[in-house]
Specification:
Layout lengths: L3 E5 L3 H13 L3 E5 L2 H11 L3 E4 L8 H10 L8 E5 L4 H10 L3 E4 L4 H22 L6 H18 L15 H11 L4 H8 L3 H15 L4 H10 L10
Parallel strand pairs: 1-2, 1-3, 3-4, 4-5
Helix pairs in contact: 2-3, 6-10, 7-9, 8-9
Pfam family, one: Response_reg
GO molecular function, one term: phosphorelay response regulator activity
InterPro entries: CheY-like_superfamily, Sig_transdc_resp-reg_C-effctor, Sig_transdc_resp-reg_receiver, Tscrpt_reg_LuxR_C, WalR-like, WH-like_DNA-bd_sf
Amino acid sequence: MAGQLLLVDDEPGLREAVQAYLEDSGYTVDVASNARDGLDLARQKLPDLIITDIMMPQVDGYQFLKQLRDDPQFKTLPVVFLTARGMTSDRIQGYNAGCDAYLSKPFDPDELVAIVQNLLEKQLALREAASDEGYNIADLARQIAEIKAILTQRGAFPQATNSLKLDLTPREESVLELVVDGLMNKQIASRLDTSVRNVEKYVSRLFTKTGTTSRTELVRFALENGLIQPGNKE
């Protein structure tokens, strides 16, 4: 299965070889040579899985993993340790730190691909099971309808001009329209022929760009600021 990966390793030769092998296996791979750049890339790209070395200068793999786990959006992100530290005690330490898989160098690249595929399949199953679970769909639909009714009564719908210049991508605009229409992530994924994970990424980016933290806040913000007109369709 395809996926977006982030590889963090300070060895250029190994980093390039692993990136090439993973890309030949159908994955999109971003790379970083240190943990600090890796964390920045993770927040920018929102990868589906991270592969990281342990022994890196300044910030090692354990510190990097802790920084990831301290960020709510990466709490359950699969992380694979790829390292020369292969003693049993090292593996135990890695799993205790919260990694999902531990592969010692030298390694068979086919094993790495198998680990990545397995973790992504498990993550996809968990996401599909949990998607929208935190929302009471009926309550959310009622809240969105109330927001639209209140703004309609006030005559408060500005024209859809995106005057705030939020720099939304076409796909983010499409997702926003469907959120305003009251659709959940699974429904949006089906409508746009994409994955639930990708919809989650777009919704997360919309929260960040609009400074909102919930779907109802996002809907109100979009309608009040003319980002979307009520009833718009693709």
